[in-house]
Amino acid sequence: MGKRSFAIIGSGALGGLYGAMLARAGFDVHFLFHSDAEHVRQNGLQIDSKNGDFHLDSVNVYDDPEAMPACDVTILALKTTNNHLLRDLLPGPTGTGGTVLVLQNGLNVEVETAAIVGPGRVLGGCCFLCSNKVGKGHIRHLDYGRIVFGRYTPIDAPPPGIDAYTQSLADELQSAGIDAQPTPDLWQARWRKLMWNIPFNGLSVVLDASTKQLIEDEHACHLATDLMQEVANASEATGRPQPDDAIEKTIDHTRHMVPYDSSMRLDYLSGRPMEIEAILGNPIRMAAGAGLKLPKVEMLYHQLHYLQSKKNSDTPQ
Amino acid sequence: MGKRSFAIIGSGALGGLYGAMLARAGFDVHFLFHSDAEHVRQNGLQIDSKNGDFHLDSVNVYDDPEAMPACDVTILALKTTNNHLLRDLLPGPTGTGGTVLVLQNGLNVEVETAAIVGPGRVLGGCCFLCSNKVGKGHIRHLDYGRIVFGRYTPIDAPPPGIDAYTQSLADELQSAGIDAQPTPDLWQARWRKLMWNIPFNGLSVVLDASTKQLIEDEHACHLATDLMQEVANASEATGRPQPDDAIEKTIDHTRHMVPYDSSMRLDYLSGRPMEIEAILGNPIRMAAGAGLKLPKVEMLYHQLHYLQSKKNSDTPQ
């Protein structure tokens, strides 16, 4: 078997970086670009990375998803706020047999992809990555980079474990220098990441604060801990109990992070839509399905929606 | 019996207005001023009111509370954030027999006064008043003006009803044109007012919004309703059930209010300390004493404290 082929849907700070690493390693990679297509076709892709800078001179660039060849693996790295576009974007690159690796923020974000390509063809992953797009075809990878990924299954199904396909995909990604870790239980991993994402994405926008400001303030840190506890309770209520020390570890880890602006705050400050439904709405609804209310997460959800509406009405269209 | 004498502690937008109305009606009124003392001594007090403007030429002005005569009634109209000063402020004007009418925001704010003058000498009231201090010795009364007041008793005591003293004080205040309504149950009245104050004071600061912006947004209005429900639950848990239509009436009333900046937002924007403990902290603690958690009110409490600390650290001292 030859090397797998990859399609990258959403070639920004995340998809662009991982796609470029795969192409550098000799994989056949096809990138869907939006506004940067012509620039990248002419100038290639520039990656500035803490692991070493590199440039791809020749990139398979598409601006039409239907023109893309059917690939073995489609990496979906679009913001979830664009998921209404998936019916147009996925059929070309996924063809009739390829899988989709959903590298989107939030919970149950694979459900829309699964509805289009079929649930057996979907994997999902959480990325722990600090990376920004700093210009056309120019990505700056600042820190981290791990992907924790696994098979997507319904929440009420038992954890699927790591099958041979998932392991071989992990091996291939690792061969390209990507820190890809297969997980036997994607839901557990997604809930675990939300224990950070919900408090720190949400509060950083509502309180106009950096992660450092939040963690160093007694009241904000107390509140972040309360929110984490609600997320841990929801995870447990949906059959995925988190380790006892998960909150303590998350707080401790955050204390030692480099000063960092959450993706939601960056989106908000730039006037882009925030991923409120994926990161907060879906967890609230999954918990409600298990009979659990998350009052503080709900409050954050409504506060973020208020701020989003106000921002939309303040910003000239 | 002659007309009662009054002391006004905190002669700002609220104390200054009511004190001036009493003085205009011929009561013997003694005003404690802070920075405006000399100005008012020389120029008197100017009231611009929707009920008619008036000027007091000669005002009994004090800047030293110990120099004040013992009065029949001391109206306490200081912000609760200054309650650490009460041990110095109250003994002079209250003497050995006078009562104190505590016209401060929040819940259980009478407790500090009661500790100083004794519980049997304390009444409390909720003010429904739109009034601003617009300059030295210059107050603008924009709208409303009602005081709902009654005897202060411990929360676990039965409602005290309206005794002869309370009724006679109401009559005197009314004779000065003040819309003073005696209530048989101060706790009920204070909880009822908090159903507005907690959501609209708190959210207006955290979301940087006017009352109108909050009530007109689907998500903010939903959240305000959730917060009101928590306050109503706390009121009931402490033995003061609110009427079934209280939330609906409060929302409806707010929809028809003139655009209005809450006192907490005005404090925040001007760099003054917010009354977080009186308006949110005390209700949270009273509910906890009755075995009830108020998760969303708690969240607002922590958010406000974060913003207050940040403001303090941003503002040169």
TrEMBL record, chains A, B:
GO biological process annotation, one example: pantothenate biosynthetic process
Annotated EC: 1.1.1.169
Record pathway: Cofactor biosynthesis; (R)-pantothenate biosynthesis; (R)-pantoate from 3-methyl-2-oxobutanoate: step 2/2
Short name of any one Pfam family annotated for the protein: ApbA
Reaction(s) catalysed (UniProt annotation): (R)-pantoate + NADP(+) = 2-dehydropantoate + NADPH + H(+)
Function: Catalyzes the NADPH-dependent reduction of ketopantoate into pantoic acid.
Name assigned to this protein: 2-dehydropantoate 2-reductase
Native organism: Roseimaritima multifibrata
